[in-house]
Design brief:
7-stranded mixed β-sheet, Double-stranded beta-helix, alpha+beta, 7 helices, globular, single chain, 4-stranded antiparallel β-sheet
Length: about 260
Amino acid sequence: MPKVSTLPDVLDVRDPQGVAGVGREVREHGMALVLGADSRRAVLRLAEKLMATRPHPDADPDGATVIHDIGAQAHTPGYAGLGAGELLHHTERSQLPYPPRLMLLVCVTPATSGGECRLVDGRAVLADLAHRSPDAAHALAAPRSAFFGRGDGHLGSVFARVNPGHWAIRLRQDELARFSPAAHLHLALLREVIEENTVTVETSPGCGYVIDNHRWLHARAAFTGDRTMLRVLGDPLPRLALRAGFTPAVPRDGALATVAG
């Protein structure tokens, strides 16, 4: 059974109060579930109220990326998200020095079967990992213990302390991720903890979520059919007042005090 608490209520973004609620949920929980974004224009309008859009190589000129199965090209390293297979837990743009803080993902066309979104709060993952194995948490937070991307990627760690008491998470689990020997020893436990804390979100047209990309990991089940999603990445507008990073689920836990960052 997942160890995370129940996900927040779904907010209807056709209602101004629903949009305001999205900001509150992201500040408090690092994520919000949404419905009513039932057109590309509605998705972009919601994004404009939350973030300054970041460019992406696969995005259209308006900043939205169509996520769907592109066939054989999806087997190219880094393109698994544009396939129909399982997509393991990750954060977006992990190869950048400062990845976009927010991701909005909305369903346009659901899969015929499968395709569920799978989410996990990095706050719970870090706390659980530190309880079970302080050595694992330490190794995965050690500077220069993980490299994400190609030759111009980012050398850092899965967990990074962004200021006293606050952390950020960064992860990918494909061919473009490499780990130090010490960190590699603990990847199996990390994946186990992630799975134990994962919750599943089944989406329908106009429904989706906003997540803090420095806190939440997301994944996707394999699917059949013409599943299509719209994604927008960006950084929060000042009125969202998001603090850097997240506090661990058990901030006074002694195990976390020994974790590097």
